[in-house]
């Protein structure tokens, strides 16, 4: 199986992407939304939308501190500022020429900080639970690779599936103002859940093939077994992802603007997840096997 | 075969019934409407943080808080307001109590905040034994530093009214406690004779009377320098309900009705487009079993929607996205089963055998992968602000419901239509993908 034979190439490819992703995080930083920072987000609708520069100039004159303006839809602007009081909200609206306020969210600084720590906790808990679950589900398969290594390979693939989309969103955030908000974290967690899905399908087949080999007393290299398992499951890995890809694409193309970024994140995540379960998680099993033989 | 036929008919009837219910429950004035989040119908959501640090029985205080706010909002005639309390921080230990107020149709935050903000917090607190010394060293000591809580608060109030002091003619406020409050008040006054029992409103000291004797009739009086007008307002607010705990506004969200409607419409459209393309893919790639999986998928959608109505699950933009995502995931089990079938067919097994093998062998991977999704949904639910909770709930319900429809429903139907004799056409109909049908299928 070429995936196993050339696994180093795939490892290097993924490695480069990961380094780039982490690099962007350090260079550009996260463009976190008011969900985590606290602040006020105001979406206003204009009958005739003025230029972004004009809007920015008007807000600058109010001395509200740092802010950002992002066009939304065809007639709206989303304006992010620090937490505004009732009076400040009125002044802002006046400075913009009293457009229709379509949406206004205010999040206190404490609520933001709290959510941030909660989000980190949630991601950690999900990863740990999945590690435990995989170790449990594969507990009967300890030969030739012990069951917790299946868990470890899954987690490494998961890390890949989460870091890659995050890196892409950091770039999107830096250049196009896409924000890392609560929905983003939700999306990451959904990717985690889904990506395991795919990996389990391949591992389940490895588990089955090992059992069949044992029952029929067939001696087969672990490498060959894993390769065979990938070949046997690659079709369904792609098709199960494709069904989700179809619905996500619909959500991205015709869905509401509120969930556009979310759909994009999931699309990237599903692609990364499918790739990693075939080209990363399974070959890693072989690498672990070789390492313990040395 | 006969068994499966009976089951198929039963399933068909069952889902016909559910479908009828769905349509029926959409009529005007229904008892089972879809419950849409404020981001889809427009309105304001206010999240308050409740300071429960001085309260012992947090749960009952929060229940009272909810009642009080509900009563207050109802006075102002908001249609279908939603007041919820939420306790977060299960793992971190320090509980964080929140009050979530959803006001559909109200898009003026200031008006909404004011509506709730006028609710007073009334507390009775005892002075610390060393209160005077504290006051000497620090004349600006806060009420928190000077007084300790008694547990007696506005939640025990049954009614308040304006009275006038017969000798001075000044306005005073007469309070009447309910039964529990009366007992607590009697106990406090009995055990702390001679001490100061301060009355605080919204954290500020209103008056600091000295307890002369036990008061067992459940009545108290607040004397202060009220004008009759102030006394009247205070009494009105107290009667609407005094807050058992102080609350502060943590987050507020307002969504215009048009933006919400656009979000809802485009969400539904995305779901339909996704469904149609997905169905076409399934039928073209998996042929007859694919068609059955489309039927199972429509059952999945009907059953999920009915559950959304019955629980009821509040559908937000994120929840809707979760549901659309789950439509794509619901057919996963079918894809796994059909792919397995294909393998078995390639081994020259009969269609019926391949079908049985497909279902039984794919089960393990379906089970394991779905458990991981359920784990994720549970953690998401725990992370939950309301938007995320909606997503987690639709995702979690989706995974569980789809395990039923994709496995039980599609198996029942497939076993009915599975042929007992093999022909090339039949074999083609049960195969999938681009693999050619082998000629030597008859053993």
Short description, anyone?
With 294 residues, chain A is α+β, with helices and mostly antiparallel strands.
Question: What are the main properties of this structure?
Answer:
heterodimer, A: 294 residues, alpha+beta, Multidrug efflux transporter AcrB transmembrane fold, Alpha-Beta Plaits, four-stranded antiparallel beta sheet, 10 helices, 4 strands, elongated, B: 443 residues, Gyrase A, domain 2, 13 strands
Low-pLDDT stretches of chain A: none
* Major sheet description of chain A: 4 strands, antiparallel
Q: Strand order, main sheet of chain A: write it out.
A: 2-3-1-4
CATH topology of the largest domain in chain A: Multidrug efflux transporter AcrB transmembrane fold
Major β-sheet annotation of chain B: 4 strands, antiparallel
Given as residue ranges, the uncertain stretches of chain B (5+ residues, pLDDT < 50) are none
Radius of gyration of chain A: 24 Å
The averaged pLDDT of chain A comes out at 88
Number of domains of chain B: 2
User: Which of globular, elongated, flat, extended, rod-shaped describes the shape of chain B?
Assistant: elongated
Helix content of chain B: 55-70%
Q: How many E strands of chain B?
A: 13
Output the CATH topology of the largest domain in chain B.
Answer: Multidrug efflux transporter AcrB transmembrane fold
Quick one: CATH class of the largest domain in chain B?
Mainly Alpha
Write down the domain tally of chain A. Answer: 2
Q: Count of DSSP helices of chain A?
A: 10
């Amino acid at each position: 199986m070429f995936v196993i034979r050339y696994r180093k190439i795939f490892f290097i490819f993924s490695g480069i992407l990961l380094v780039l992703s982490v690099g962007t995080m350090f260079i550009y930083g996260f463009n976190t939304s008011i969900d985590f920072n606290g602040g006020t987000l105001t979406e206003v609708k204009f009958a005739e939308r003025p230029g972004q520069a004009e809007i920015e100039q008007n807000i600058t004159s109010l001395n509200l501190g740092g802010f950002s303006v992002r066009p939304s839809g065809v007639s709206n602007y989303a304006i992010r500022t620090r937490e505004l009081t009732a009076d400040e909200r009125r002044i802002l609206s006046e400075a913009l020429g009293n457009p229709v306020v379509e949406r206004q969210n205010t999040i206190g600084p404490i609520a933001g900080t709290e959510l941030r720590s909660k989000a980190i906790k949630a991601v950690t808990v999900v990863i740990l639970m999945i590690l435990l679950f995989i170790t449990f589900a594969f507990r009967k398969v300890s030969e030739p690779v012990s069951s917790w290594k299946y868990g470890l390979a899954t987690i490494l693939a998961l890390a890949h599936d989460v870091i890659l989309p995050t890196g892409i969103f950091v770039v999107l955030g830096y250049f196009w103002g896409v924000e890392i908000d609560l929905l983003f974290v939700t999306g990451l967690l959904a990717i985690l859940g889904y990506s395991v899905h795919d990996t389990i399908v391949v591992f389940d087949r490895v588990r089955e093939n090992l059992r069949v080999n044992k029952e029929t007393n067939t001696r087969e290299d672990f490498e060959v077994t894993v390769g065979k398992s990938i070949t046997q499951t690659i079709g369904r890995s792609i098709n199960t992802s494709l069904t989700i890809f179809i619905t996500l694409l619909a959500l991205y193309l015709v869905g509401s603007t509120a969930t556009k970024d979310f759909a994009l994140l999931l699309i990237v995540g599903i692609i990364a997840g499918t790739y990693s379960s075939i080209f990363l998680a399974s070959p890693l099993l072989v690498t672990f096997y070789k390492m313990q033989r040395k | 075969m006969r068994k499966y036929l009976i089951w198929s008919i039963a399933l068909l009837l069952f889902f016909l019934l559910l479908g009828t219910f769905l349509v029926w429950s959409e009529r005007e004035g229904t008892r089972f409407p879809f419950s849409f989040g404020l981001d889809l119908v427009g309105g304001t959501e206010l999240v308050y943080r409740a300071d429960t640090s001085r309260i012992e029985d947090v749960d009952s205080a929060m229940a009272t808080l909810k009642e009080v706010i509900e009563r207050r909002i109802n006075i102002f005639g908001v249609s279908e307001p939603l007041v919820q309390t939420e306790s977060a921080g299960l793992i971190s230990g320090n509980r964080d109590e929140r009050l979530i107020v959803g006001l559909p149709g109200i898009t003026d935050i200031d008006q909404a905040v004011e509506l709730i903000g006028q609710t007073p917090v009334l507390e009775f607190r005892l002075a610390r034994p060393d209160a005077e010394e504290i006051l000497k060293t620090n004349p600006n000591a806060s009420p928190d530093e000077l007084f300790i809580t008694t547990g007696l608060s506005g939640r025990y109030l049954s009614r308040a009214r304006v009275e006038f002091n017969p000798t001075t003619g000044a306005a005073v406020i007469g309070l009447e406690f309910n039964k529990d409050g009366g007992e607590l008040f009697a106990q406090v006054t009995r055990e702390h004779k001679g001490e100061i029992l301060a009355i605080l409103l919204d954290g500020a000291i209103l008056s600091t009377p000295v307890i002369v004797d036990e008061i067992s009739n459940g009545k108290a009086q607040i004397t202060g320098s009220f004008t009759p007008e102030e006394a009247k307002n205070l009494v009105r607010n107290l009667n609407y309900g005094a807050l058992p705990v102080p609350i502060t506004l943590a987050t507020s969200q307002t969504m215009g009705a048009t933006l919400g409607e656009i979000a809802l419409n485009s969400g539904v459209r995305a779901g339909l487009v996704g469904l149609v393309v997905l169905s076409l893919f399934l039928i073209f790639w998996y042929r007859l079993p694919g068609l059955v999986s489309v039927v199972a998928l429509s059952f999945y959608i009907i059953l999920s929607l009915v559950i959304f109505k019955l629980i009821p699950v509040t559908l937000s933009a994120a929840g809707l996205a979760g549901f659309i995502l789950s439509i794509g995931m619901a057919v996963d089990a079918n894809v796994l089963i059909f792919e397995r079938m294909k393998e078995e067919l390639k081994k020259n097994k009969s269609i019926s055998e391949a079908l049985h093998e497909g279902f039984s062998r794919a089960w393990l991977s379906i089970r394991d992968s779905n458990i991981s999704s359920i784990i994720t949904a549970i953690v998401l639910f725990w992370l939950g602000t309301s938007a995320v909770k909606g997503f987690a709930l639709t995702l979690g319900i989706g995974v569980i419901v789809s395990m039923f429809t994709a496995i039980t429903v599609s198996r029942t139907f497939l076993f009915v239509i599975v042929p007992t004799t093999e022909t090339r056409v039949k074999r083609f109909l049960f195969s999938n993908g681009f693999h050619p049908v082998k000629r030597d299928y008859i053993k």
